[in-house]
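Chain A, query sequence.
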Amino acid sequence: MLPTRAAASFARQSLRLVSTAILLSPALRAQRTAVEAEHAIVTSVHFLASEAGVEVLKKGGNAVDAAAATAFTLAVVYPYAGTLGAGGFMLIHLADGRDVVVDYRETAPSAASRDMYLGPDGNVISGPGSSTLGWRASGVPGMVAGFALAQQRYGSGKVTWSDVIEPARRLAAEGHRVTQYTAYLFQNSVDKLAQFSESKRVFLADGAMLKSGDLWRQPDLAATLVRLQQEGPREFYEGETARLIADAMAKNSGTIALADLKTYRPVERIPLRGSYRGFEIVSMPPPSSGGIALLQMLGMLEPFDVASLGPNSAAKYHLFTETMRRAFRDRAEYLGDPDFVTIPVTDLLDRAYLKKRMTDFDPTRATRSDQTAPGLGPIKVTAHTPDSADPSRAQHVALRAQLQNESTETTHFSIVDAAGNAVSNTYTLNGAFGSGVTIPGTGIMLNNEMDDFTSKLGVKNMFGLIQGPANSIAPGKRPLSAMTPTIVLKNGAVVLVTGSPGGPTIISTVLAIITNIIDHSMAVQQAVDFPRFHHQWMPDELTFDRHSMSPDTMKILANLGHNLKERPTIITGDGETIAVDLKTKLLHGAADPRKPDSKSVGY
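Chain A, predicted structure.
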């Protein structure tokens, strides 16, 4: 055994040798190997969606074209998490060095108002008509417009809009075999889907239930996709599909009107950029909190010799938990929708600030979350709308929004093409099968993203989060997010494309994958497979995957003052990830085993 100081020195020397090389050898020491491809690769939660992306790549499309094909196919085969009624974020890295974000997050309808989910008694209503269920729960969908904008501006020009929709149309019209996992998802959501006749008909076979191996055809969705192919993406917002959505909403006291669809537009944003041990990190800006929190954590970790701690030691869990605690505390205090709230992004990512943020870190004792102050002090976060004015300081501390979380019912996919273009995309319906509502004649299930706003100050949403005034409901406003699509570069070249679903655990999942590779020299598949843990300031709990922490480690962490909570399952995120070997140029896709149908497909 080396003495402690010598061991640490040896670990630092080893880190310098492998921190650049590890991404050049993705198969090294993997417990199971990633899928290797020479030209291009798609990694997603469903093998049919990955195959659709590759189909478009082989026709001459680039990563952006393939992203559209993958997303539309997921809307057919994985409606649990994403449909044409969804929204999200796409991070694009172009081979010429440009990076761009397409924000196609849903927006609140024009009929929305701050107190729309309060009953006569002033309390938040539940059940149909609430922010979580039924015809009033949906924001205006951005999925179709977002991928249309991305393909129009950044696609190859060699495949058409109709081409990227075709794999999805074919699967909807001709059908596909229901997998065991998909059948389970339907069965697990019977109570929700059965409340709405169209959802019951489409997704529950009118009560007969779809079983593993059944051929599932969706003719209404196929017809919708044909209209989009023939008339273009605005058909969803101004054509027959828009009319069907608006009419169904009007008949059922819903909130989305034809004018809301007609005026919806996606937004291009500038990604956030940071660095970690010589790698460049490109990630999501607000209205997602993910990129800021991720870059804060990496900035706080960089002064520490993480490699010497090992990948699953109590010391490593302790250090990472303390950085998460501080980043999530800042996240709760300062962040919001940038179109409605002024955010101190530069101050939050300043390296001197992040170093100062860890000056009270105690390697022998956990910090209490109720004693963890926001690092910039009581800064007034200026709201741009009158009904979002800041409350008193006491309310400000107690009620500041924690930046809305997606549940595990979100989906992520990663793509790299032969030219070096890359896409990291995360999108969502919010809850499982969204609002539960399917628009008759369209096959489209809608989201329940309105629960991502503040229904009432001090009242928890469906994910147990207390919301604040900066995230109050307002027409046209985008709900906040934790989605963290991320691309890692080395000397300007893509080395890693990653992201995840999982609400606040999205951020800790992305952090884990990146540091597993850079700090712990893991192969990409091993980095994705490795057990995960999470802390988000409040509640003050260190959660971890089931059976992933030894009793000895748990005892040490408990003695340090951590409140431990084992998750009932091992599903913490879904990090569909791609690594690029800069020496051989080979691509390595690591599908996350936490989702049974996930697959990397390349050629």
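The two ends are 45 Å apart (CA to CA). Confidence is low (pLDDT under 50) at residues 1-30, 385-406, 461-468.
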